[in-house]
Amino acid sequence: MRDISASVFKSCLIYLFLLGLIVRTGFLVEHAWTPSFGVLTLDQKYYNTVAEMLLAGEDLHRLHGLKPLLYPMFLAACYKLGGAHGIDLAVVVQHLFGVLTGVMVALLGTRLFRHRLSGLIGGVLYLLAPVPLYFEGELLVESSYIFLICLGLLFVLQAADFAGWKGALLWLLCGGLTVLTAQARPNILIFMAVYPLLAGWRWWRAHQCGALLPLLGLIGGMFMGIPWGFVNKMQSGHFQVIPSAGGVNLYFGNERTADGMKGVLNRFINYDERYEDQGEVWAREEYEAAMRAQGRQPETDPMAVSKYWTRRAIGEIKAAPAAWLRLMARKCWLMLWNAEVPNNKAFAFLQTEYVWLRLLPVRWVVLLMLAPAGIWASAKWGNRDALFILLVYVFLYSTGNVAFFICDRYRYPLWPVMAAIGGGGLLAFAETICLRRWRRVLGLAAGMALMAALSLPNWFGAKLPSFARDYLFRSIAWYEKGHFPEALSDIDRSVALEPSNTAVLHHRGNVLLALNRFEEARQEYERTLKVIPEDGGVWNDYGITLAGLGRTNEALQAFRRATACHPPSLSAFLGIAFEQIRSGHPDDAAVTLDQFDKQEKGPNAMALAIRSAIARQRGDAAQAAALERQANSLDPATTAWAIERATNGGPKK
Fold first, then answer.
1. Does residue 342 have a cis peptide bond before it, meaning omega lies within 30 degrees of 0?
2. Cβ neighbours around 84 below 10 Å, total
3. What is the rounded CA–CA span in Å between residue 159 and residue 258?
4. Residue 404's CB: how many other CB atoms inside 10 A?
5. Would you call 302 helix, strand, or coil by DSSP?
6. Is the pTM of this model over 0.70?
């Protein structure tokens, strides 16, 4: 195939970078005007919470060693540099990672095909794909994780071309980079198998000692793992090379009721007012209950929890092996399906919101259709070692996904390599047509048709979730930005789709409360409490609503019920204190605040503002002013509202 010169290629890389910048800038501008921008949900909240804990120097042991710390460290650095615009800075940097990933895809393709134009086409395919673009705009690990994966693959391909001491150093670096990438998400650890596999492949062909150099990647990985074991000890309390929720995810993906797409908790999970991962809380609580039922003391080591769930997963497989084999076949097909299975937000819903996500043309089926031609072309004219490495990566990573469950986030790491292979495939197919080699064209077209036939139809009758959660997330975004009528419109759509979802019902109550529709909010909270009577947050909001209706005694009962839940609602202590002040019992309010301070770590602006109001009621103006200044230094808006409420009343969340 005809190619471009090295100088032209360098210029084209600059244009490729600019293309990525244009696409990402356009999407970022559109994203910034939506209600969801900067409003965090689910895993985004988790990463944000850990980043803030890192910045504040808080004890990380409450994280229980669930997820690696590399991405929260990245966020903490962005928050430190960006200040009030820390989240904005993180999103911008992630989009830059996306652009650089597109450039690296071009470099991967160039090495794979030994053909610069093929590499550039692969880079264009990646940069014109909407799925990577969406993930770059979320506070999720994916964009930095994919960037590190592509960087590691480039180093592996580079190391494969070197021998001697340079090759040895590169292989050590490759192994270290793989383990570093695993500190973003442990799934990539399965790629460590490429080092012995490549060494075996080369030894089989050459029978030379130099063929075994890739084994040094295992040593490099070990060297990188040792310091991270001590870093991870900060959250687990044990030397832990890789924090992981692998055991419970293996169970979710292989239990007898699994659909191959998501894990479903069998009960409501309650936690305190700082966000925690529901799956982790459920797994830990179920493990502890099982150990106590057996008369054993639960271990605090997160690996013990993971091993317990791994044993449970194996037990599920053994109990119904035929059903498990059908499930595995379903998950293998889900890896090929053109639909994006949602893990957090639904990509199909987001396409209704963003023009950029609708217009960009490269979907998963496009990359699948181009893959056979790309593999054929690289095997015929390209670098076979590079092909071996990239195919091993695709196979191992896909196998890891199938072992757990399939969703858009877990399939996304395959996009860069598939784009690199697809770039050469597209060029090879076009070149074959130009040369009028019709038999070859027919063979390549048949491969494309086969992949399309596997990817486009819904062969297993898979049913994607409704948009109920997406409307909920958008309603939460409207709510947090003060657009309550729009929030009500979206949450009503969510209720229509999932009328029994307690998170939806609870949030609808919050929106009605914000609109001062107290009676309707009361009814919504009561509906929620019938399903989840132990949720302290709902009881607290119910108490605020009753206070707004003037039903003070009932409000106090609701607040006290919220403090008796496990875990208790800390906000409810403040609600009790407000009612006690307004009813002329400042001493009782002070006692309630003492109870609050025992559970709250660090100073709280609202609690200090209430103490200021108590001091003012007692006639101690100097202490009241000092407490108000201290509260203002933490949060002026909350302080002003709290003092106003303590003085004049009026509910507000």
1. no
2. 7
3. 41
4. 21
5. helix
6. yes
